[in-house]
Amino acid sequence: MEENSNNTPLTQEFFLQAIAELTETVKVGFDDVEKRFEAIDKRFETVDRKFEAIDKRFDVIENKINDISQNISSINTEINSIKIDLEEVKRKLERLEKSSKEDLDVYAEDILFLRSRLKDLDKRIAKLEAVG
Question: Is residue 111 part of a domain?
Answer without folding.
Answer: no
